[in-house]
Amino acid sequence: MDTNTTIPGTCRLMRIREVLQLCGLSRATLYREIKLHAFPAPVKLSARSVGWLQDDVVLWLQTRIAQRGPAYNADTQTAHHGERKTSSVRPALRQARDESE
């Protein structure tokens, strides 16, 4: 059997380190979210090991991204009379970084 083919109805299991790295959560936050049913529950593999279905974790991430809302589109929103909002802080920070290098 070819190792690159996926068996229908199966999904890759991720261990906790990979889940934490992918989601950017701490271990405590991950387990708190699981307890609150806000994060997919792990699959028990043995007495002392668990794994998460990759599809479940990716779906959770996609849902979180979709929940961002319009606040993250602030750069594309207009200020007064169609003028774009600009920040005077960003160019100053860039200039300071360029000068320090």
What does the model show?
The chain is an alpha+beta fold. The chain has a domain at 13-68. It contains four helices and three strands, in the order βααββαα. The chain has helices spanning 16-23, 27-35, 54-66, 89-100, and strands at residues 13-14, 43-46, 49-53. A three-stranded antiparallel beta sheet has the order 1-3-2. Strand 2 and strand 3 form a beta hairpin. The protein is globular and about 40 Å long.
What keyword list fits this structure?
alpha+beta; 42% helix; globular; 101 residues
Can you list the strand order of the major beta sheet?
A: 1-3-2
Residue stretches low in confidence (pLDDT < 50, at least 5 long) are none
Strand percentage lies at: 5-15%
Task: Supply the helix-strand structural class.
Answer: alpha+beta
Q: Describe the largest sheet.
A: 3 strands, antiparallel
- Portion in helices: 40-55%
> Radius of gyration in whole Å, from Cα?
21 Å
Encode the helix/strand succession as letters: EHHEEHH
Mean pLDDT score? 79
Secondary structure elements and pairings:
Elements: E1 13-14, H1 16-23, H2 27-35, E2 43-46, E3 49-53, H3 54-66, H4 89-100
Antiparallel strand pairs: 1-3, 2-3
Summarize the structure.
By secondary structure, this protein is α+β, with helices and mostly antiparallel strands. The chain is 42% helix and 11% strand.
